[in-house]
Design a protein that fits this description.
Helices cover 0% and strands 47% of the residues. It has strands at 11-16, 26-31, 36-42, 52-60, 66-68, 73-75, 82-85, 91-95, 98-102, 109-113, 130-135, 141-145, 150-155, 160-161, 165-166, 178-182, 185-190, 193-194, 197-198, 205-210, 215-219, 225-228, 233-237, 242-247, 252-258, 269-271, 277-283, 286-292, 299-303, 306-313, 322-326, 338-343, 348-353, 359-363, 380-385. The chain has one domain (22-305): Methylamine Dehydrogenase, Chain H (7 Propeller), CATH 2.130.10. It is mainly β and 386 residues long. It has no helices and 35 strands. The strands form nine sheets. Strands 2, 3, 4, 5 and 6 form a five-stranded antiparallel β-sheet that branches. Strands 11, 12, 13, 14 and 15 form a five-stranded antiparallel β-sheet that branches. It starts with 10 loop residues before the first strand and ends with a strand.
Length: 386
């Protein structure tokens, strides 16, 4: 696979803060009509037992200004926000067991809890929180809930859950993805149950669902991570180091080539408006992202900035205890601090390619204003391409 890396002056990283927000639990989507990025993120820190609040922030692409929306979602520390935009440019979010509609034009918000599970396979491990979402071409909102063997269709015109579909496997948090690669078709991956429990080492399951007939077809594809591209196709990582293009309308598979892996795997994938696939990657031993042309296999790579970190002994009875934090290189030598060059990944939680050829990433980092947290990257990082 071609492996060109742009010269350093061809791209740069720009950090954007989310004032007052804590780390983790966020995702993002690009709004082409308004040329902005919508970011749903938890606002307060704490533990799972503490009340958690999620908020919605608009980042204007033109000047990177942020506007916090008058929206508060209740959840807990185990939940991760999901966000999508429909054909009418309405923002849809899922957090915990609740689906939320937000109209940016009017500021109106409406929420619906997941429907009862009667008639569906039982909930395992007392889970059932939404962990995957997509919007099909007919406007239906589809969600999957953790450890539940079903997908739910929500009709936004009627405001009702109208299409529950049973599955022979369950959705798993951080691993299951929903997509709508073609009209009348949605796809989902998951893990089968064995004796009422999942086996993390088991082969992943992948299904193609016809939304009109609610038929579910299980394909023998080793889909580990995937993303819908265009013309009824997906690009998936097979877990063995390869990227494969699969046509769900005319079932055919084409091996694209070796995947630009991120420390041995692929944590996240996204598609831009031109059909290119973005994914995390390890570049010459350092973390970064890659842009893949799924038709030619051509790859462009963008390495994250190298971070200079300092190691200092902590006040502890154990002299071997250390803490690590980013430092600024100065000509003055601090004998108590040993600077080390490291490759630090921002822990990407979401990717949102914009209409200008640039990539926006939401990370697990805390707000830059939270002095108690030291991160090498901001909550949102923009990759600007010349």
């Amino acid at each position: 696979m071609p492996n060109p890396t742009p010269a350093p002056n061809q791209f740069k990283w720009v950090s954007v803060d989310l004032p007052g927000q804590y780390s983790y639990m966020r995702s993002a989507v690009y709004d082409n009509a308004r040329d902005c990025i919508w970011v749903v993120s938890r606002e307060n820190g704490g533990y799972a037992s503490d009340p958690m609040v999620a908020t919605l922030t608009r980042i204007n692409v033109a000047d990177r200004s942020t506007v916090k929306m008058p929206l508060r979602l209740n959840a807990d520390d185990y939940d991760e926000g999901l966000i999508a935009l429909d054909a009418q440019d309405i923002v849809w979010m899922a957090w915990g067991e609740t689906l939320t509609r937000f109209d940016p034009g009017t500021g109106a918000t409406k929420q619906w809890p997941l429907p009862p599970y009667s008639g569906l396979a039982r909930v395992y491990s007392n889970d059932g929180r939404i962990d995957a979402m997509t919007i099909s071409s007919d406007g239906e909102i589809w969600v999957a809930a953790g450890m539940l063997s079903a997908v739910f269709g929500f009709n936004p015109r009627r405001g009702t859950w109208d299409r529950p579909i049973n599955l022979p496997f369950v959705s798993v948090e951080s691993r299951t993805l929903l997509a709508a690669p073609a009209p009348g078709i949605i796809t989902i991956n998951g893990i089968a149950l064995h004796g009422g429990a999942i086996d993390p080492q088991d082969s992943p399951r992948f299904a193609v669902i016809r939304t009109d007939t609610r038929s579910v077809k299980i394909l023998s594809l080793p889909v580990d991570r995937y993303v819908a591209t265009q013309s009824g196709q997906i690009v998936y990582f097979d877990g063995a180091g390869n990227l494969v293009r699969y046509d769900v309308v005319h079932p055919t598979s084409t091996v694209i080539g070796p995947a630009p892996l991120h420390w041995g795997g692929i944590p996240i994938m996204a598609v831009d408006l031109e059909g290119n696939v973005w994914l995390g990657a390890t570049i010459h031993g350092f973390a970064g992202v890659s842009k893949l042309d799924p038709l030619t296999g051509a790859v462009a790579q963008f390495q994250f900035p190298v971070v200079l970190r300092g190691y200092m002994p902590t006040p502890s009875p154990n002299p071997c205890s250390f803490r690590c934090y980013p430092i600024v290189c100065k000509p003055i030598v601090d004998l108590h601090c040993i600077p080390v060059v490291e490759s630090v990944s921002p822990d990407i939680q979401g990717m949102a390619p914009d209409a200008h050829g640039n990539l926006w990433m939401v990370t697990s980092s805390s707000s830059l204003s939270n002095s108690g947290d030291r991160f090498a990257f901001g909550p949102v990082v923009e990759l600007q391409l010349s």
